[in-house]
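hey so u asked for the seq, here:
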Amino acid sequence: MEEWEGVVGEQVRSTRLAADLDQRTLAGRADVSVGAVKNLEGGKGSSLRTLIRVVRALDRLDWLEALAPPITLSPLRMLAAQRSDPQRPRRASRRRSGD
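ran it, structure tokens below
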């Protein structure tokens, strides 16, 4: 897990630098403390709320959308459709000895 915190922190830092922002400015835009930005960038742990605020301030909502893509097809509807499909092969039942 610590490895991923470091990877995310590096991505946030690289994006901040590419946007020509210092940590103080990013913290102000994200409405978080400078220490929170430092912790996030350093991979030292951060809250989900801080991550979301910083990602929004960096205009990188695509990162969040990649984590939770919209559901376009309900798994329950897919299951119901499979059950009601008349062309779906059915399992043959065994005859009981008393039949």
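The first helix runs from residue 2 to 18. The mean pLDDT is 85.
lmk if thats what u needed
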